[in-house]
Amino acid sequence: MNKNSNLILFRVFIPFATGYFLSYIFRVVNAVLAPNLAADIGIGPSSLGLLTSVYFITFAAFQLPLGLLLDRFGPRRTEAVLLMFAGLGAFLFGRAESLTGLVIGRAFIGFGVSACLMASFKAYTVWFDRSKWPVINGFQMASGGLGALVATSPVEMLLAVTDWRTIFMLLAVFSVFVGLLVLFVVPEKKQKQGSEPLASQLNGIKVVFTSLKFWQVAPLVALSQASFLAIQGLWAGPWFRDVIGFERGEAASLLFWVAVAMISGWIILGVLAERLAGRGISLTATAVAGMAIFMVIQFLVMVAPPSWCSVIWLLFGFFGTAGIGAYAALSQKFALGLSGRVTTGVNLLVFVVAFSAQWAIGAIIELWPVGADGSYHVMGFRYGFGMMLALQVISLIWFFIATRIMKKDEIITST
């Protein structure tokens, strides 16, 4: 790599990767902070699930407008401005004295980091050669994994010297810093081609959302990824405490290693999918197989003895990333010009379902009485996790039904 390439890597990749690192801290930090939030604000599991999941719904709601903004104003300005809202959200969250205040802050956070992945992907297509996209995108995902690592044991250790409010004040300052980093370090690159008319962009969204090719696999991806996000981002920590009997430090440590497994999953499963594709096995088939394995692991989470806990949860982190491969698989089914709308369309579904899942699991847990020590009943966890697993199984069945319908249509068309 020459000197100019190194400079572009530093000025483009580092700022956007730092933004995604930050967004993942926000996404999963409540898994460690849940007992503090419940004790200080006095909220139950249903409210805790709603609070944490608000991140997902505001994130999801902005995905389709985000695609239009990225095309019109570019990834640099779009992400820099949005990160200021993330900083405002973290400030409001850290100052909140009620559930309403926390929800408002969390909503601003989700809105503010909604561009951290899609803006980076957009920037990399502009600044890096097509052959480098898989590698650079893989490292981008790994930067999010590092954020998940920081949000586990390091946050738990930080709580020994400060409180959760100070942590969010630090995150507010860091959000503003990253926004300025993106704005002033990332160079601007004018593209020669004209912008696609708005009417054409909106019609492209319609093409994606009315296609059976999209709905064949999108529900499975949405439910698989949403279950992973909802559980890893909040309910895994209380599960370790109340079902397995871990102390807070032990729970944070296992969450740390789950995040390590997640990073490994993104890298290893991505490389495996690429190699299998070279042997004629489609990206869709590899992603669906990985998501099916993830379902088996979720079942084991609910029924296996506590002595299996560490191994099963490491596998949970590893195979929970399998659905990411379906993003590329879906993009390949559509024209190149629609790839951004396909990706943001899937993201929209994933985060809407993640919002619903994280809240619903909390509502189910609350059907059982909370212990005097603030612990949640094991059956609440099992029914909540079981609900998400059942929906994934249904979506897997639908995948095979839709595949048969599409094959029949192909035969009819060819004759």
Give an overview of the whole structure.
The protein is mainly α and 415 residues long. The chain has one domain (3-185, 197-414): MFS general substrate transporter like domains (Growth Hormone, Chain: A, Up-down Bundle). Helices cover 81% and strands 0% of the residues. It has 18 helices and no strands. Helix 3 packs parallel to helix 6 (99-112) and helix 12 (212-244) runs parallel beside helix 14 (283-303). The longest helix is centred in the last third of the chain and has 37 residues, at 378-414. It is globular and about 65 Å long. 51% of the residues are buried. The model has no long low-confidence stretch (mean pLDDT 88).
Shape: globular
The mean pLDDT is 88
Strands, total number: 0
SSE-based structural type? mainly alpha
* Unreliable stretches: none
Alpha plus pi helix count: 18
Taken together, the total number of domains comes to 1
Oligomer: single chain
Give a quick set of tags describing it.
415 residues, mainly alpha, Growth Hormone, Chain: A, 18 helices, globular
